Amino acid sequence: MLSIIQTGSLFIISGPSGSGKGTVVKALAAASPEFALSVSVTTRKKRESEVHGVHYFFINEDQFITLRDTDRLLEHASFIGNLYGTPRSYVDEQIQEGKTVLLEIEVNGALQVKSRYPDAVLIFLIPPDFDELNRRLADRGTEDSETVRARMVRAREEVALIDKYDYLIINDKIENAVSDIKMIAHAEKLKTTKRVDFEAGFYNNNNQASAL
User: Fold this and answer.
1) Which tens digit of pLDDT belongs to each residue from 60-100?
2) How much is the pTM?
3) Contacts of 87 (CB under 8 A, 6+ apart)
4) Which residues lie closer than 8 Å to 109 by C-beta, 6 or more apart?
5) 53's torsion region: left (phi>0), alpha (psi -120 to 50) or beta?
6) What radius of gyration, in Å, describes the C-alpha atoms of the chain?
7) Less CB within 10 Å around the terminal CB: N or C of the chain?
8) In 3-state terms, what secondary structure has residue 85?
9) What is the largest CA-CA distance in the chain?
């Protein structure tokens, strides 16, 4: 007898600011129900346009500390006085449902999650070259030149850690990057550890043993 196991995967998407990772992740989630966005918890106040459970799980500091101290966060960080983290339960539930969970996170957080979740698939997204990255950052028009320079310095630091990742994707066009990640997701689902469980007597069924 052959029993099929349809567990999913955790995909961690990293890349420099301006690499387009946020756009790619949203495009993947919109393209197929097999993808699920990991929703972080935060102590930051909810903005009017945000929906609890969609953009973030908005909680207070005491709740956050409880999650952190009881090992229920895959990773956590502090930014501008607010706490952020990735809840382990949400990720595990989605994976058990066979989803490919997408976690968009910076390099240090990605490696932190990988150490706690060894089966996670690490994908690094970059533009064709640094000139293109600099152009994208400048064209956003949301930051001054000093901030853009600082982001370029950080980008080179992040790129130096590419060898820690499983896949490198050049984001020249959004549709190409989305297609590449879809292929990776398909390959992950075909792994024997995620799809099949050979039980005693399987090869005796339908005379398959004689064909081996």
Assistant:
1) 999 999 999 999 998 888 866 889 888 998 888 998 888 99
2) 0.75
3) 39, 40, 41, 57, 67, 72, 73, 74
4) 75, 77, 86
5) left
6) 20
7) C
8) strand
9) 71
